[in-house]
Amino acid sequence: MRTTTSNSLSTVALQKFKKNFWGVLSFCFILLCALIAIFAYILAPDNSRNANQMHLSIHSKSPGFTVTMLTIPSQNSYDQSFFNTLFFGEKNTDTEIPIERYTFKDDALLIVPYSEGELIDIKKKIALQVFPQDLTKDEITRTYIRDQTFILGTDKYGRDLLSRMLVGLRISFSIGFVAVLISLVLGISLGAIAGYFGGRIDTAIMWLINVTWSIPTLLLVIAITLALGKGFWQVFIAVGLTMWVEVARVVRGQVLSVKQMQYVTAAKALGFTHLRIITKHILPNSLAPVIVISAANFAAAILIESGLSFLGIGAQPPTASWGAMIKDHYSYIILGKAYLAIIPGLGIMSLVMSFMLVGNALRDTLDVKG
Q1: Model pTM?
Q2: Peptide bond preceding 318: is omega within 30 degrees of 0, i.e. cis?
Q3: Tens digit of each residue's pLDDT (9 = 90 or more) over 22-73
Q4: Confidence grade of residue 121 (pLDDT, cut at 50, 70, 90)
């Protein structure tokens, strides 16, 4: 009977969630972003590590910019598995040169590098020996010379902005997932212990919660980041260690209420251990508000990471981060190229808004009272 009731309640909650248009739309958008984040290096035009292929001669170009690109193959080759390329990008040491025109002459390739009219007919000679020896001139043209379109344009270093956005999405999702995971582990554990045992244990944990709560979140994250050092994983840990207090307070309140129920008293009378009572009987009936908080914390983690990267203490260059992209280009807003900062800003806004809308939908679905 209990299983049937649980299933029916889950079915009712799912049906209620499906009726929330914005919640469903936001959930689908988040799933799409998650898939893009996983396959970022497969989808990105520039699949080099961190999408860091620079072309300074074509910096700050507008969306839709097209240029002829010459690729000079590297003499060093790397054997990479599919999964290594999928998660870390391609170890690409090939040299890419934007060019205006080219001609073959004897055993050399003469090119005019792209200069946007700044330099007239500055030709560069490239020996054909740098290409595989068994290729004809036509095959070299088809294989190593192509027209490349930058859909979102290029940043101030001449990197493909679309590729940086796709790889940066992975950073935002990673920080949100890891930070929420850390906050759930700490918050649920400490909150459940405080609410279940009470007394001095509750007092000590609540003192720790109140002290942590009184410190401004961004200031605490900066302090932890400086203590652990600047870097990718340090930011994950720092953000996660600042988001557990709200989870702990909510779980404690829920446990204080649920532990008065008759089925908990019956479990104690049957001699069940404290761990079994907490994990099997109390927590499953206390986690509805935590699900809502997790969605909000996911959005908050993305904002905090973006803020840290904007300040220069988040993910370090050349790692693609939306916050760092805004930092690099916010001055371009007054130079007529505001899109360089607006595009990553819109990415942050849309992702955060989606998580907040999903959180609101879950709150209505689970009937969580604030």
Answers
A1: 0.85
A2: yes
A3: 999 999 999 999 999 999 999 999 988 889 999 998 999 999 999 999 998 8
A4: low
Q: How many CA atoms lie within 13 A of 312 on its CB side?
A: 1
Alpha helices in the chain (DSSP H): 2-18, 21-38, 40-43, 82-88, 137-144, 161-197, 199-214, 217-228, 232-240, 244-258, 262-269, 274-276, 288-311, 322-329, 339-366
For residue 296, the tally of other CB atoms under 10 A from its CB is 20
| Tokens coding 222 | 């900066």
Residue 76: closest CA among 55, 95, 50: 95
Residue type, 72: I
Going along the chain from its start, the domains and CATH numbers come out as 2-34+162-366 (1.10.3720.10), 63-158 (no CATH)
If you ran DSSP here, which 8-state letter would residue 19 be given?
Answer: T
20 vs 119: CA distance, rounded Å: 59
Containing H/E element for 147?
strand 145-150
Cα–Cα distance for residue pair 98/111, rounded to 1 Å: 10
Dist CA 332 CA 25 (whole Å)? 33
Annotate 227-291 with DSSP letters as a single string: HH-SSHHHHHHHHHTTSHHHHHHHHHHHHHHHTTSHHHHHHHHTT--HHHIIIIIIGGGT-HHHH
Nearest Cα to Cα of residue 218 among 318, 306, 86 = 306
- Spatial neighbors of 13 by CB under 8 A, at least 6 apart, are 365, 366
Cα separation, 60 vs 346, whole angstroms: 18
Cα separation, 48 vs 23, in Å, equals 35
What tokens does 168 get?
């940066």
d(Cα 217, Cα 245) in Å, to the nearest integer? 11
Contact 222, 308 (CB under 8 A): yes
Q: Which residue has the tokens 């279940």?
A: 196
